[in-house]
């Protein structure tokens, strides 16, 4: 018998039933809920006269629609659609008795930042949310992925999910990262290499020395974008850093329960003789600070490169590249570090954690922004409070950044923080699709340090030039 991967182990531990055609019923440990994908699911329960099966394992927080400026609890400061969604979550959380962090609560924030912060996300768990970036929680050695609204209803009603097992893929990042290279550069480089469909049908386990060396924050950044590479989920084996991060969190186990949990968590790694359906290896030393130039997360290049020509691609990609270049208003051959930007957005569930803010502050200290608009949006109220305590907020404000309240903000155009048509943005989020940050807006994805560097020079910039 061959050994098991980490994914196999978590899967087996949660398998409630397997039908003959391979369709399985998985037990779900944590169900995270936000205001966009849950209203119809709760309505379904109401109509069927059902309760939430495990309200204690169900955690809700509004994040996508909420404004990030003061006075945001006033519905007048939201569009009608946004106000309806947030009000529905308020009511559903109350009616169904689930854990809830409303905008008035300092613990409110982006659902994928709040879950780990509060100790809801723990190693070996199954974690789902009606949101594709649920992959973030895989950083803890949890099997975590997005689900659709009908599945949200299914999980609310039964605490189980119907699934088919994915294949196992290993992405190994060997060696050390060079100075100026971060978790974001790792995850973008992987997608640049494998493409947005490279992970389709797989759960990716990220491993290797460069992954081990990352903090928990960095590991969350890597797993966050597994979905952009097409994977069902991304996962990283838990280790001492993971355990240390979890210990003492409000909803982490305590005392004897902690010891028992730890004993099981220590078995959560892929066996040496486990079977991998696909393996990718990248040398950490070969990874450069990168930016995206197009409208797909796979359109990644080192900052030292030039805008590619559409005909340097093959087959159907030629047309797609041309369309990207037209939308982005870019000309082939332009050095990436000469592209001028209007706006900088630092935040999102990819890069809205304290370490991301520290990395940006290190570059911004004592400098002034050279762009029209620059904003930093902490991923949660607690990240915001911590950044204020550490003096980071002062550095940002002195540099000319707006210092906002927690939410998804300019990561996607569902709230007042949006790009105007043609506006070009250096962003630390995870999607650069057409219109993602506002109709006609142009997004370049990068790390927080790179976004901070761009803010200072007013163009895409190699952060290593400022170090
Ligand atoms: C609104 C939500 C369903 C969506 C997702 O699933 O990812 C959003 O969070 C995003 O990042 O595009
Ligand atoms: S921050 Fe962006 S990617 Fe993350 S959940 Fe919000 S909208 Fe989705």
From TrEMBL:
Record keyword Secreted present: no
BP-aspect Gene Ontology terms: L-leucine biosynthetic process
UniProt pathway: Amino-acid biosynthesis; L-leucine biosynthesis; L-leucine from 3-methyl-2-oxobutanoate: step 2/4
Domain Aconitase/3-isopropylmalate dehydratase large subunit alpha/beta/alpha: 8-458
GO terms for MF: 3-isopropylmalate dehydratase activity; 4 iron, 4 sulfur cluster binding; metal ion binding
Pfam short name (any one): Aconitase
The enzyme's E.C. designation: 4.2.1.33
Catalysed transformations (reactions): (2R,3S)-3-isopropylmalate = (2S)-2-isopropylmalate
InterPro entries referenced in this protein's UniProt entry, alphabetically: 3-IsopropMal_deHydase_lsu, Acnase/IPM_dHydase_lsu_aba_1/3, Acoase/IPM_deHydtase_lsu_aba, Aconitase_4Fe-4S_BS, Aconitase_4Fe-4S_dom, IPM_dehydratase_rel_enz, IPMI_cat
Binding-site positions, [4Fe-4S] cluster: 349, 408, 411
Keywords on record: 4Fe-4S, Amino-acid biosynthesis, Branched-chain amino acid biosynthesis, Iron, Iron-sulfur, Leucine biosynthesis, Lyase, Metal-binding
Cofactor note: Binds 1 [4Fe-4S] cluster per subunit.
Quaternary structure (record): Heterodimer of LeuC and LeuD.
Function: Catalyzes the isomerization between 2-isopropylmalate and 3-isopropylmalate, via the formation of 2-isopropylmaleate.
Family: Belongs to the aconitase/IPM isomerase family. LeuC type 1 subfamily.
Name of the protein: 3-isopropylmalate dehydratase large subunit
Native organism: Gymnodinialimonas phycosphaerae
